[in-house]
Each structure stands twice: as C-alpha cells, then as structure tokens.
Fold this protein.
Amino acid sequence: MPEAALLSVRDLSAGLAGRAVLSGVTFDIARGTIVGLCGDSGSGKTTLALAISGLLPSPPYRVRGEVLLEGRNLAALAERDMRPIRGARIGMIFQDPLLALNPVLKIRTQLAEVLRAHGVARDLEELAALAGLEDTARILASYPHQLSGGERQRVTIAQALACRPQLIVADEPFTALDGPRVLELAALFRRLRDRTGASLLVISHSPGVLAGLADEVLRMSGGCIVARGPAREVLRSGG
Amino acid sequence: MADELLAVHGLCKAFRVRRGSRIALRDVSFTLARAATLAIVGRSGAGKTTLARCVAGFETPDAGEILFNGRPIGRAERPRVQLILQQPAASLNPRFTAQEILEEPLVIQRRDRRGAAARAMELVGLPPGALGRRAHQFSGGERQRLAIARALVLDPAVLILDESFAGLDWRLREQAAALLAGLRERLGIACLLIAHDFELAAGMAQALAVMEEGAIVEQGPTAEIVAAPRHPLTRELIAAARALSLEGA
C-alpha cells in the first residue's frame, strides 16, 4: 500500500570509513502499523534506526538514498531543518532509560522541557498516564533514581509521545526487562498504536516478543534487509 | 556435601534510605557444588544483584556467612570468586591491549604473568595472536569472551555472571553458554548466574533459585521447577517465558 505509507525508505545506504554499514535498504511503514526489525548483533538495526531519525553524523558516515516521511525526504535535510521533525514527528525510545534521562532534574521538568522545545502545550499528568504510568503525581515530582527501572522506561516513552509523533522508533526497549514486564510493554505499544494511530518501528533481537507484537517483520543481516513479511513467517525462517 | 564449593547461609542485607532502611536480602541460603550452575532468577529489584555483590565481596552482609570449601571466605580466597558484570564488554579499558587487559588482575595481585594471558585467550577460544589488539578491534561476542578471559586469569573456582548475557542475540548467547559449559567441564568452575530472563536461566543452569523481595521463595533442580512450579512468581515467570517463546507467542 504505497499511497498510505507513512514512511518510505528507498535504497538507503550508509558507509563508515569505506565500509558499507547499510546497503540498499528499501521498505515502507503504513500508518497505524507496528513493524518489527530483527537481526543479529552488528547487522545494522540500530544504524538504520539512527539513519531514519537523522542521527547518523555525516561525516564520518556517508548516507545515500531517501527517507520519505509523508513524501518529504528527511535524508536531504540539514540538521537545522531536521531538529523540529525529530522529537515532534518521530519519537524515539532508547534501550537504557538511565542514559536518556537527566539525573539532576525532576521528571516534571524533563517532560516540560520536551514540550517547550517543540512549542507544544499538553497536560503532563495525562501524558504520563498515556505512557502507562500510575501514581503520576509522585512520578512527576521524582528524580530518575527514585523510580523503578520500569517507571523510568515509561518516562522516556512519555517523552517520545509528548508531541504526538506519527512514527515511534524503539531501539531494543525490552532488553533490560523481566518476562512479565516485556509482556506489559508490548501491550502498551499496541494500546498506543490503537489510541494515537501512530506507527511503530520496534527493534528487538527477541523473536518471541516481535511475533506477538508486530504486523510485519524485517530481518537484517550485513546491513541489508534479507527477509520481510508476516512476523511468524520471517521469524521462523530465520532459525 | 564433599564437593560443596560455596555455601551461603542466612545472608541478610539492608540499605539505609532517606526514611529508615530498605531490606535487600532476607535470610538467603543456597549451596553451589563444583562444576555446577545455579541461576538466581526474579523480577527487577528482587535483590539479585545485591546477592551477587555480597557473594563476590563487593558488599558486606549484615548477617549470615559465606563458606568457601567449608570455611568462611577470607581475603586469600576472594580472587577465586570472580564477578562478571552486566555489559562486560563496556568494562574493558579502551586504551589497553588484550594482553594488558588480561594481565592487569595479575599485576594487582602481584602474581606471575608469564603465559597467563595466552592461556586465558586459549580457554575462551580467542587466538593468542590477537593479544596485541585493543578492545574496539574485537567483535561484540569476542569482547564478551575477553571479559570472561580476564576473570579466568586468577584461576577462579566460581564465576558470578550478573546479567552478563542480557542484550546478546541468541547466537552469541548460545556461544557463551557453550563456552561456560566447556569451562565447567575442563576446569570444574562453578557458575552463579543472575538473570531476569527465565528462558535463558533455565537453559543454562541445572538448578534455579527464584527471588522475590530479597528472599528465595523457591529453589531446586531446573527440570523439577519448570515441570511443577509451586510459587506464584515462578508460575508467572514461566508463563511469561512461554508467551515470549516463538512457539508460545
């Protein structure tokens, strides 16, 4: 369904020091879908996520190809023009919430900072609740170290959702979570897609979680997409 | 009990917090035989890492005792219990060569360094010719092996692996599991595996101990626990692991 595609990546390649780290990557993400991205360590998953978000520094990386968000080529934008898109149209969730949060600022300040940077007004308690946080008054008044690992992760999800992005890129969000929490987070992702209509690109090396979560899965190897299709088919074929 | 290498009895530990104290370990007891693997599983915040740090000597327990070969563990035996941290590759000094990384513990312990680095490289399946390379010149899986090799130079009897395999894809996990099985067989090393991933723990360890709020709520042989879990948390962890397996999803 190319007309309905929210994101179209076309022949995207990236090189570092003469070595190809992404080669001819082409895929679409339709509106309101969850796409899983799997592959072994070093296959290029995180590099692709960074390239989509305009976070691959050039130089040293040489990036070619197109990243079309609703038809606009983000790969051709200067960093100044990319900044209002990243965070506002594309939300990002990283693996380690402790590294993504400022240790000396309260959660309320950190969420408000995201809204202020993009000129968005929004109720912080409602935003925290959307990210699956309970007892939002306590959370907003806390510093990151006063929260549990699961709560910190939901704070970074709230940051990613702050500006109502159309696309959310989550890079290995399940790695540090125990089994029951992985299932809770996967349920939250599905709820967010249903409530906000956003599309999600979820990177994970755990095939089981993607099988239960993603509408479609892409498999990467050596910087290329080597398989795509319904989650179970792609994940089973990969062995 | 003859081959009982490590015995932990009644370990308690509390941390001071702003208002009062927070109990991290409540009367924790277990034993570890030579060449055995025991996995401590549980949800985040259950006290698993505090237990690992107490056994490794990085924290002093408030009560309880740790016996090594039947005697309270002392300064001389401490190097024989080695802790490998979460993200072990991140703990490698980027300025050091593999040789310097592997010899550093021996320098600190004032021990003979001759041949030790090459021997450790061989034990983890890395080519001794790579001793001159720096950490960033190894792949992710090789860095993992290098971190294990660094623990091996001190001739440990027990390796404590605190979430050392979290974040690895299944191929690297399988390689690491095979490496540990080989070390157990060749050197008789026992492993205490700390993991939030039940499937990984059950796949690598012959025995499991399930922790909740600082206490061990169920322990026994892995096969028995998986077949007939008694505690609600164990059942919850097993159900989540099944839901997350490709067959169960």
User: Anything to note?
Assistant: Chain B has eight helices and ten strands. Strands of chain B lie at 4-16, 21-33, 37-42, 63-68, 71-72, 81-84, 158-162, 190-195, 207-212, 215-221.
